Amino acid sequence: MGETPALFTGRRWFFPSALLHELDPDAARAGRRPRRTARDWVVDFSSFLLAVVVGATAVEALADNPHVPNELAVVDQLIGALACAAVWLRRRWPLGLAVAMTPVTFVSETAGGAGLIALFTLAVHRPFRSVAWVGGINAALVPLYYWLRPEPDVPYLLIVLFAVLLTVAIVGWGMFVRAKRQLMVSLRDRARRAETEARLRAEQAQRLAREAIAREMHDVLAHRLTLLSVHAGALEFRPDAPPAETARAAGVIRESAHDALQDLREIIGVLRAGESDDTGRPQPTLAAVDALVAESREAGMKVVLNHRVEDPAAVPSSVGRTAYRIAQEGLTNARKHAPGTEVTVTVTGAPGTGLTVCVHNPPPEGEVPPVPGSGQGLIGLTERANLAGGRLEHGPTPQGGFEVRAWLPWR
């Protein structure tokens, strides 16, 4: 449902019902008539009282005019009284009342105040086209009216000019009020759109942050949990292993679980703090690829590292971190989908030419059971590489193996 702004909610009595109706989209779509506010009642009563006062002034003028018969004056007053009562209908039928008042004010002098109020209401509530037609007809009838009913104490041209200027002023005032209301409605709509856009931007930023954290959790925890799975599987299938080997596997499981918890704590800390690099341990860079390969070798993998970057510390931290995540994901995938094979990790590049990371493994021996959630890490890595301004390609090789190759800019 549409919500009225707080400015109007606390002071609804102070604003016109038509303005509140335009600010309530639900009421406008449903076609419900706006309820009169306290301000509307005050304005309507004041308009009725003004029409009566103008009519009473005209009654005195009729009594002093010798050219008007007494019977005609009585009829004029009766028509004027009905016109003043019709002022209460100006909000419901502004155009119809203004059109009806045009001939009424032409034949009744006491209905002049009600006619001007009807013309003002039309200018406030209807477009300029309707106002121009009705106001133009009223202004065109002024010379004829005063030619048929001349004022004995005022020159003809002066009274005609005054009446036309009064009609134009009433129309101008009503159009000014209408423009002011439309401005308030447009400002409210603009504020509503700004609030909607801000909410959408906040939701998009929240979604992007969640996606980034999910990617980071996958990249970090998948590697640790794969090590846990490998050594836990070895203990399961080798219950008769020597105590030293069992103790070594248990130590790796303990260290991997500790590192996984530490990484998870860092990621959750980033989520809470809303920062990326100021919490937890230092983020991995290209120099940490050697430690990553050594950790994989300790887990029982066969890994060959071809590190051809002369100064890994010179690589920008964002590029080095992305290269590390690519190598980490490649080793994790090889461990899951091609266990027992020899994996080759190649890192080459130089400033100006870019950094290339390639992880290749031959086809596994025998059938490998499918792993749930396969491919999600590569999707995240592709997006990560694109955000860094590089590209990532992955897929099977002609020899039946699998290769992940990425190029990252190094300026």
From TrEMBL:
Keyword Ribonucleoprotein among UniProt keywords: no
Catalyzed reaction equations: ATP + protein L-histidine = ADP + protein N-phospho-L-histidine
GO MF annotations, alphabetized: ATP binding; phosphorelay sensor kinase activity; protein dimerization activity
Transmembrane segments: 41-63, 97-124, 131-148, 154-176
Pfam families: HisKA_3
Enzyme class per UniProt: transferase
InterPro entries: HATPase_C_sf, Sensor_HK_TwoCompSys, Sig_transdc_His_kin_sub3_dim/P
Domain Signal transduction histidine kinase subgroup 3 dimerisation and phosphoacceptor: 210-274
GO CC terms of this entry: membrane
Enzyme Commission identifier(s): 2.7.13.3
Keywords: ATP-binding, Kinase, Membrane, Nucleotide-binding, Phosphoprotein, Transferase, Transmembrane, Transmembrane helix, Two-component regulatory system
PANTHER family from the UniProt entry: NITRATE/NITRITE SENSOR PROTEIN NARX-RELATED, NITRATE_NITRITE SENSOR PROTEIN NARQ
Protein name: histidine kinase
